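Project outcomes to date are best conveyed with an example. Our students and postdoctoral researchers have been running inverse folding experiments weekly, and each run begins with a structure described purely in tokens. The record below, which covers 549 residues, was selected by the lab manager from last quarter's runs and is presented without edits.
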């Protein structure tokens, strides 16, 4: 390599060369073709340590003899370096770079040796450079330890650790993300975090990335990413800005924790609280309904008894009037003064249209009695429906509970459908909580009525609405089916209909709790199960299975 100087002047070149060699911390030397050192730097000449490749090796020393001696040394590292330098001096090795340790007075030092056989330089066999790299090696060991510690920490961390660029592309991720997603590294490398985040959370996620870059650290925020099964994983994340290890400005460190279990617990707790409030409300309504039913029952009984009395009394009165009419006709036929009075009385009876009254008043009384009977039936259904369930399962007549529920819910379905029942004969008493079963049947009947009403404008309104409720014994279980010929449930949402707060009804029409409560009552409180069959434009059937044991 040529020395470049300001002008072609041997004197200037010598000055520059001396200045360069004196300023170098590396110990350098030049050996001639016989292995004699013909030149060394000041650092080489001033060396005070025990490194055998430097100590005592002044100008004029035979470096070839030194290397021959050290190559036979029992110190393996020194032997290898010595043989390598010998090979360079002989021209067999063009360049050599080796590290080796030496025990100095203050401890073990590490040295880096570079030997070069310069081409095109007659009389020179090798240029040797030796540098103390103890501090550098220590730094490298510390870095390697840090890297191993970082790798061990991140590889075994349960939290997700991701390094993102400013656009959200994943630069690095620990194995936790791969375990969570179940994807290979290559597939993850092709994604950005925005590809994984739920669309409803993208705004919050992007804002967190922006704040992390701007402020250096964000508060903890929640977001969701997809899982291998097409669902969503709830995460809790925090963003901070870090230096890009690639030297391209700042990167974004995203540390996230899977909180799906916690979220599920919160949802379950919220569901339990909702059901508790719902149960308390139902209990209060049930107490109120029972009280109202009791209050209505007494005057209804008075009305029924009095109407029945009027029916019987009218029948007796009509009989007496007909008898009187017969006597008057006899008197009129006998002639005389009494005949004229009898004629007047018979005329009065005819003007009163006794025949019409005799025909219509019994009908009115009978209709009144039927109406009172209907009120009595509804009151009885309300009393049955509102009967408290108690703390433990009890054996109950399902058919009676279903009939009570049908009566109570009549206002929901009477304008849109007819209700048909098909009850299994000789159905045994079933262990259940009757109040909760009443609520389940009520929710299903109301949903069926709404589905039938929803057919309007969809080409199915001309078909009569029909709700069928049936029971049957299915092995160790009893099955209750509630079917309708309504709009049906779209296949894409059938898996979500039992989720809390999920509803397809317009705002104000439903809270999304009805079917969720149905599912909870059947599966949790009764250890039963519920199945769904539905087809768009055909209708829906819910099948409830309760254990008979």
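After processing, the design step wrote out the following sequence:
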């Amino acid at each position: 390599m040529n020395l470049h100087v300001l002008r072609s002047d041997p004197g200037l070149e010598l000055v520059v060369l001396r200045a360069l060699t004196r300023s170098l911390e590396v110990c350098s030397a030049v050996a001639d073709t016989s292995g004699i050192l013909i030149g060394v730097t000041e650092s080489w000449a001033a060396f005070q340590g025990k490194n055998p490749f430097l100590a005592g090796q002044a100008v004029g020393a035979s470096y070839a003899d030194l290397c021959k001696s050290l190559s036979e040394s029992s110190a393996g590292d020194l032997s290898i370096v010595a043989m390598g330098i010998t090979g360079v001096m002989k021209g067999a090795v063009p360049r050599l770079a080796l590290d080796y340790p030496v025990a100095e007075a203050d401890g073990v030092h590490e040295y880096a040796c570079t030997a070069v056989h310069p081409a095109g330089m007659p009389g020179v066999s090798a240029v040797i450079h030796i540098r103390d790299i103890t501090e550098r090696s220590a730094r490298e060991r510390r870095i390697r330890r840090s890297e191993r510690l970082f790798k061990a920490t991140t590889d075994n961390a349960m939290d997700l650790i991701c390094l993102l660029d400013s656009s959200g592309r994943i630069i690095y991720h620990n194995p936790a993300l791969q375990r969570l997603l179940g994807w290979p590294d290559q597939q993850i490398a092709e994604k950005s975090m925005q590809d994984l985040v739920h669309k409803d959370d993208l705004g919050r996620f992007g804002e967190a990335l922006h704040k992390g870059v701007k402020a250096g650290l964000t508060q903890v925020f929640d977001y969701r990413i997809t899982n291998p099964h097409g669902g969503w994983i709830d995460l809790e994340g925090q963003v901070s800005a870090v230096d890009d290890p690639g030297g391209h400005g700042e990167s974004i460190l995203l540390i996230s924790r899977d909180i799906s279990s916690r979220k599920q617990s919160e949802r379950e707790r919220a569901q339990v609280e909702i059901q508790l409030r719902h149960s308390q409300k139902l209990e209060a309504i049930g107490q109120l309904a029972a009280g109202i039913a009791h209050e209505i029952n007494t005057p209804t009984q008075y009305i029924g008894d009095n109407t029945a009395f009027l029916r019987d009394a009218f029948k007796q009165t009509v009989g007496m009037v007909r008898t009187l009419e017969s006597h008057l006709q006899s008197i009129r036929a006998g002639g005389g003064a009494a005949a004229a009075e009898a004629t007047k009385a018979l005329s009065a009876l005819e003007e009163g249209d006794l025949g019409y009254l005799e025909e219509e008043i019994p009908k009115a009384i009978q209709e009144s009695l039927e109406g009172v009977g209907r009120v009595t039936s509804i009151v009885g259904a309300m009393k049955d429906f509102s009967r408290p369930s108690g703390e433990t399962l009890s054996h109950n007549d399902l058919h009676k509970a279903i009939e009570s529920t049908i009566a109570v819910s009549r206002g929901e379905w009477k304008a849109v459908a007819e209700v048909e029942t098909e009850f299994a004969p000789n159905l045994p008493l079933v262990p259940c909580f009757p109040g909760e079963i009443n609520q389940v049947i009520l929710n299903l009947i109301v949903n069926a009525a709404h589905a039938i009403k929803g057919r309007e404008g969809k080409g199915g309104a001309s078909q009569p609405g029909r709700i069928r409720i049936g029971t049957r014994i299915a092995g160790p279980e009893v099955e209750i089916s509630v079917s309708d010929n309504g709009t049906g449930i779209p296949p894409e949402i059938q898996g979500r209909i039992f989720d809390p707060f999920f509803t397809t009804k317009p705002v104000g029409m439903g809270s999304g709790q009805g079917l969720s409560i149905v599912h909870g009552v059947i599966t949790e409180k009764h250890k039963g199960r519920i199945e769904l069959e539905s087809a768009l434009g055909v209708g829906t059937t819910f099948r409830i299975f309760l254990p008979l044991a």
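The radius of gyration is 51 Å. The domain at 10-139 is CATH 3.30.450.20 (Beta-Lactamase). The training component of this project remains on track.
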